[in-house]
């Protein structure tokens, strides 16, 4: 197939702008959705020189069919598919501005804290696919993007297998990249554990900066310590188990591998790599960096304001921080974290300074415990008053959950975590064009329309309801019924009052129209039960 010319209009809907790459199955172009003027990706079948290629066309149609039914924040978004009279079948996907893990980490090593975040997010995606009987079959650093906003996105579903039964069945073709594909898949007999092997092999790449080409006499990938002596024993053992040549010796589910990674996800500051800001660093003669609190895409430090000697929090990193600073600068509310300053340091770039809150998150306080209903009411009414304040200013928080709500040592409630907050002009669905990075815990507190990229004021109310569920059960509300509704809290705590249970179920209704429409309305319902 010759390249499609720049400027070509497909069915009066899409414009081809530039050729990006050609693979074994097709060609990929950057394009524009004419109606919305948004950037898109367009995939065409790569036909033989002598004309039609039904096998490649069928594979692209399967990719379109699978992506059409998937709605996951960390999977590339399907937009459309169609047939052009001249160029044949084509698939339209969201355009992700960013870089692949291969481009970012080739020849480098990924810090273990970031490694955990990446792999837990990826495994949640894999778990979601396996739950609907889909094998990806081509997971590798090439096929995992990190967007400019720090989101992790799994792309390239060209090798996907739909309707997999879980049996060790032949799929006729041998698909997969040799360095990242397990032996059974390369022989034409993939299993769910084949995708887990590929995640393990991708982990090997991330901690060494090179593909795992070397095998021992038994076909095992070698210990990552041979290439990077600083790899922890725990991470090395996870990689070796995930990539065992024998399917039965691997993690049998993505969830099982997530649990293993969660054990190692609590990295102490001393274990974080040395590309962080050294303790004692002075930023613009105003603030002193004292200790790293959290690594990752945006690093968070404990610090000190030199002029006042007060403790502060310093957030460093371009992604989303300028937007967060803009939002927080205009907010003055006793139950919302206080903005202090933002600036640009010549060496370390943009940084945001916030008050330091001594205390603990609701997640840390109540995991495995239950909150008395009287305290529950006080917490939620205070939180809803803060949200009503935000909504009155046309701000949607979008990250309300037990780990973004702090109870200070003085027993003051503080809402934090404004990285994803957005400003909207009306209480209608807003397509902000972004996805989110998240793990299973975080996703349990998010409304369905929020995860699809259309947050509303009622999305925050859903999150309050889900947080209430957590507070009276001690666990996140992960389980949904067949209609997508969070189950009654009584299934986990029989002592929950009918009134509180009904408030939670109304707040977390999957249908936006059936929830409380304002924070004030939910406050009124809670006030009835607090008397």
Describe it for me?
It is a single chain. The protein has 531 residues and is an alpha+beta fold. The protein folds into four domains: 9-94, Phosphorylase Kinase, domain 1; 98-263, Transferase(Phosphotransferase) domain 1 (Transferase(Phosphotransferase), domain 1); 276-355, 2-Layer Sandwich (Phosphorylase Kinase, domain 1); 360-530, Transferase(Phosphotransferase), domain 1 (Orthogonal Bundle), CATH 1.10.510.10. Helices cover 31% and strands 20% of the residues. It contains 15 helices and 22 strands. The chain has helices at residues 54-69, 101-105, 112-131, 183-186, 192-208, 233-242, 254-263, 321-329, 362-366, 373-392, 440-443, 448-451, 457-473, 498-507, 519-530, and strands spanning 9-10, 14-22, 26-33, 38-45, 78-84, 88-94, 98-100, 134-135, 144-147, 152-154, 161-162, 282-283, 287-294, 299-305, 311-316, 339-345, 349-355, 359-361, 395-396, 405-408, 413-415, 422-423. The protein has a six-stranded antiparallel β-sheet, covered by helices on one side. A six-stranded antiparallel β-sheet has the order 12-13-14-15-17-16, covered by helices on one side. Helix 10 packs antiparallel against helix 13 (457-473) and helix 10 packs antiparallel against helix 15 (519-530). It is globular, with a radius of gyration of 25 Å. The N and C termini lie far apart (73 Å). The model is unreliable at 165-176, 265-274 and 426-439 (pLDDT under 50).
């Amino acid at each position: 197939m010759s390249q499609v010319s720049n400027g070509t209009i497909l069915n009066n809907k899409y414009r081809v702008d530039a050729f990006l790459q050609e693979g074994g199955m097709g060609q990929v172009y950057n394009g524009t959705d004419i109606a919305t003027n948004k950037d898109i990706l367009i995939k065409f079948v790569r036909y033989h020189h002598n004309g039609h290629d039904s096998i490649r066309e069928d594979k692209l149609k399967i990719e379109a069919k699978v992506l059409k039914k998937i709605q996951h924040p960390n999977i590339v978004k399907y937009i459309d598919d169609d047939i052009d009279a001249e160029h044949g079948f084509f698939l339209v996907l969201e355009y992700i501005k960013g870089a692949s893990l291969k481009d970012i980490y080739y020849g480098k090593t990924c810090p273990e804290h970031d490694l955990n975040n990446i792999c837990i997010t990826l495994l949640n995606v894999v778990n979601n696919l396996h739950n609907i009987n889909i094998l990806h079959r081509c997971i590798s650093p090439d096929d995992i993007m990190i967007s400019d906003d720090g989101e992790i996105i799994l792309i390239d579903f060209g090798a996907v297998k739909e309707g997999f039964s879980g049996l060790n069945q032949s799929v006729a073709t041998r698909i997969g990249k040799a360095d990242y594909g397990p032996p059974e898949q390369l022989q034409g007999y993939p299993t769910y554990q084949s995708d887990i092997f590929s995640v393990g092999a991708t982990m090997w790449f991330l901690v060494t900066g090179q593909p795992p080409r070397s095998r021992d006499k038994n076909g095992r990938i070698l210990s990552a310590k041979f290439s990077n002596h600083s790899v922890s024993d725990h991470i090395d053992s996870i990689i070796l188990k995930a990539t065992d040549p024998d399917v039965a010796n691997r993690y049998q589910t993505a969830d099982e591998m997530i649990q293993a990674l969660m054990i190692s996800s609590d990295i102490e500051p001393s274990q974080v790599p040395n590309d962080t800001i050294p303790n004692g660093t002075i930023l613009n003669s105003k603030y002193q960096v004292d200790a790293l609190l959290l690594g990752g895409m945006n690093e968070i430090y404990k610090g000190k304001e030199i002029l006042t000697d007060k403790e502060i929090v310093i957030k460093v990193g371009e992604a989303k921080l300028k937007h967060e600073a803009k939002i927080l600068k205009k907010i003055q509310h006793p139950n919302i974290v206080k903005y202090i300053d933002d600036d640009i340091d010549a060496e370390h770039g943009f940084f945001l300074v916030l008050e330091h809150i001594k205390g603990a998150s609701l997640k840390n306080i109540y995991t495995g415990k239950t909150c008395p209903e009287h305290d529950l009411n006080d917490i939620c009414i205070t939180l809803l008053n803060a949200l009503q304040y935000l909504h009155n200013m046309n701000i949607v928080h979008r990250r309300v959950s037990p780990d973004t709500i702090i109870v200070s040592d003085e027993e003051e409630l503080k809402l934090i975590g404004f990285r994803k907050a957005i400003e909207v002009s009306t209480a209608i669905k807003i397509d902000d064009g972004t996805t989110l990075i998240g793990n299973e815990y975080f996703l349990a507190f998010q409304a369905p329309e929020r995860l699809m990229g259309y947050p509303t004021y009622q999305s925050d109310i859903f999150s309050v309801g889900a947080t209430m569920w957590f507070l009276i059960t001690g666990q996140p509300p992960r389980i949904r019924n067949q209609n997508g509704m969070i189950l009654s809290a009584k299934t986990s705590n029989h002592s929950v009052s009918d009134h509180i249970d009904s408030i939670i179920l109304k707040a977390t209704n999957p249908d936006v129209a059936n929830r409380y429409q304002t924070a004030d309305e939910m406050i009124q319902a809670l006030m009835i039960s607090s008397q």
